[in-house]
Prior knowledge:
This protein has four helices and four strands; from the N terminus they run E-E-H-E-H-E-H-H. By secondary structure, it is an alpha+beta fold. The protein has one domain: 2-Layer Sandwich (Nucleotidyltransferase, domain 5), CATH 3.30.420.140. It has a two-stranded antiparallel ribbon. The chain has a two-stranded parallel sheet with strand order 3-4. The mean pLDDT is 89.
Amino acid sequence: xxxxxxxxxxxxxxxxxxxxxxxxxxxxxxxxxxxxxxxxxxxxxxxxxxxxxxxxxxxxxxxxxxxxxxxxxxxxxxxxxxxxxxxxxxxxxxxxxxxxxxxxxxxxxxxxxxxxxxxxxxxxxxxx
Length: 128
C-alpha cells in the first residue's frame, strides 16, 4: 500500500497487507480507509510483458470492483509491469550506497505500490 498527495503528485510507501485465507484483508483495508480517508484508490494491474491479460489481471479487476462497492470511492487501474523489479533495483542501489537494510518481500511490495501510484500521478499530470 502507498499513499499520495494529488496536489504535489507525490507518493509514499505505507504498509503491506497480506491476504487472509486467500481473501483480501478487508479489516486491514477498512482500517487504512478510515485512517487516511482517500478520495480515490489506484490498483496495480498485472499484465504479461506483451500487454495481454493473465488470470491475476481479472482477479485484480474484480478486487477493484469490490473496493469501489465497499468504500464508494473511485478506483483507478494502473499497469504494474516491472514495478517490483524497479523496487528491487532501488533497494539494491540503496544497499550499494551503504544502507544495509535486508531486502524483504514486504519492502519490495510497499515500494512497488509507491512506484505504481507515482506512475499514476505522472500519467494524470501528463493528461491535463
